[in-house]
Design brief:
It holds the Pfam family HxlR. This is Winged helix-turn-helix transcriptional regulator. It comes from Balneatrix alpica. InterPro entries: HTH_HxlR, WH-like_DNA-bd_sf, WH_DNA-bd_sf. The chain is built from five helices and two strands. It is mainly alpha-helical. Strands 1-2 form a two-stranded antiparallel sheet. Helix 2 packs across helix 5. The chain is globular.
Length: 110
Protein backbone atom coordinates (compact mmCIF):
# COMPACT_ATOMS: atom_id res chain seq x y z
CA UNK A 1 0.00 0.00 0.00
CA UNK A 2 1.51 3.33 -1.03
CA UNK A 3 1.38 6.55 1.03
CA UNK A 4 -1.62 7.93 -0.89
CA UNK A 5 -3.63 4.77 -0.25
CA UNK A 6 -2.67 4.83 3.45
CA UNK A 7 -3.77 8.46 3.70
CA UNK A 8 -7.12 7.70 2.02
CA UNK A 9 -7.62 4.67 4.28
CA UNK A 10 -6.90 6.75 7.39
CA UNK A 11 -9.27 9.51 6.25
CA UNK A 12 -12.03 6.97 5.54
CA UNK A 13 -11.60 5.46 9.02
CA UNK A 14 -11.76 8.92 10.62
CA UNK A 15 -14.93 9.79 8.70
CA UNK A 16 -16.56 6.51 9.76
CA UNK A 17 -15.69 7.26 13.38
CA UNK A 18 -17.17 10.75 13.09
CA UNK A 19 -20.33 9.34 11.52
CA UNK A 20 -20.66 6.81 14.35
CA UNK A 21 -20.50 9.61 16.91
CA UNK A 22 -22.49 12.42 15.31
CA UNK A 23 -24.73 10.21 13.18
CA UNK A 24 -26.09 8.27 16.14
CA UNK A 25 -29.51 9.36 17.32
CA UNK A 26 -28.42 9.35 20.98
CA UNK A 27 -24.84 10.66 21.05
CA UNK A 28 -25.69 14.36 21.00
CA UNK A 29 -28.39 13.88 23.64
CA UNK A 30 -25.93 12.08 25.93
CA UNK A 31 -23.24 14.73 25.44
CA UNK A 32 -25.68 17.57 26.08
CA UNK A 33 -27.05 15.91 29.21
CA UNK A 34 -23.55 15.40 30.62
CA UNK A 35 -22.74 19.03 29.80
CA UNK A 36 -25.87 20.04 31.74
CA UNK A 37 -24.57 18.21 34.81
CA UNK A 38 -26.43 14.91 34.48
CA UNK A 39 -23.46 12.60 34.96
CA UNK A 40 -24.59 9.26 36.41
CA UNK A 41 -25.96 6.47 34.21
CA UNK A 42 -29.29 6.14 36.04
CA UNK A 43 -29.85 9.90 35.96
CA UNK A 44 -28.94 10.00 32.27
CA UNK A 45 -31.43 7.24 31.51
CA UNK A 46 -34.20 9.16 33.30
CA UNK A 47 -33.17 12.47 31.70
CA UNK A 48 -32.99 11.29 28.06
CA UNK A 49 -36.50 10.38 27.01
CA UNK A 50 -36.76 7.13 25.08
CA UNK A 51 -33.22 5.80 25.53
CA UNK A 52 -32.87 2.20 26.69
CA UNK A 53 -30.37 1.01 29.26
CA UNK A 54 -28.58 -1.02 26.60
CA UNK A 55 -28.31 1.90 24.16
CA UNK A 56 -27.16 4.29 26.90
CA UNK A 57 -24.45 1.84 27.99
CA UNK A 58 -23.29 1.45 24.39
CA UNK A 59 -23.20 5.23 23.79
CA UNK A 60 -21.33 5.91 27.05
CA UNK A 61 -18.78 3.23 26.14
CA UNK A 62 -18.34 4.57 22.58
CA UNK A 63 -18.17 8.23 23.60
CA UNK A 64 -15.59 7.34 26.24
CA UNK A 65 -13.54 5.33 23.76
CA UNK A 66 -13.65 8.25 21.28
CA UNK A 67 -12.23 10.50 23.99
CA UNK A 68 -15.34 12.69 24.33
CA UNK A 69 -16.27 11.53 27.84
CA UNK A 70 -14.20 10.66 30.90
CA UNK A 71 -15.47 7.83 33.07
CA UNK A 72 -14.72 7.89 36.78
CA UNK A 73 -15.64 4.90 38.92
CA UNK A 74 -15.57 5.38 42.68
CA UNK A 75 -14.47 2.49 44.91
CA UNK A 76 -17.57 2.55 47.10
CA UNK A 77 -20.24 0.07 48.06
CA UNK A 78 -22.35 0.17 45.97
CA UNK A 79 -19.98 1.36 43.22
CA UNK A 80 -20.68 4.77 41.72
CA UNK A 81 -19.81 5.83 38.18
CA UNK A 82 -19.83 9.37 36.85
CA UNK A 83 -19.10 10.81 33.41
CA UNK A 84 -17.66 14.20 32.46
CA UNK A 85 -16.92 15.90 29.16
CA UNK A 86 -13.33 15.94 28.00
CA UNK A 87 -11.87 18.98 26.23
CA UNK A 88 -12.65 17.26 22.93
CA UNK A 89 -16.24 16.69 24.05
CA UNK A 90 -16.60 20.37 24.93
CA UNK A 91 -15.19 21.35 21.53
CA UNK A 92 -17.64 19.02 19.78
CA UNK A 93 -20.55 20.56 21.70
CA UNK A 94 -19.40 24.02 20.58
CA UNK A 95 -19.52 22.80 16.98
CA UNK A 96 -22.98 21.33 17.54
CA UNK A 97 -24.12 24.69 18.95
CA UNK A 98 -22.87 26.36 15.75
CA UNK A 99 -24.87 23.85 13.69
CA UNK A 100 -27.98 24.65 15.76
CA UNK A 101 -27.40 28.38 15.17
CA UNK A 102 -27.02 27.80 11.43
CA UNK A 103 -30.22 25.76 11.39
CA UNK A 104 -32.10 28.50 13.26
CA UNK A 105 -30.90 31.17 10.82
CA UNK A 106 -31.88 29.01 7.85
CA UNK A 107 -35.33 28.47 9.35
CA UNK A 108 -35.77 32.24 9.68
CA UNK A 109 -34.84 32.75 6.03
CA UNK A 110 -37.30 30.15 4.81
Amino acid sequence: MNSKQKKNSTQARLYRTLEEVVGCKWSVSVLMAVAAGVNRPGALERHIEGISTKMLSERLRKLSSYGLLDKHTYAEVPPRTEYALTDAGQRLLAIIAQIHALDASLQQQA
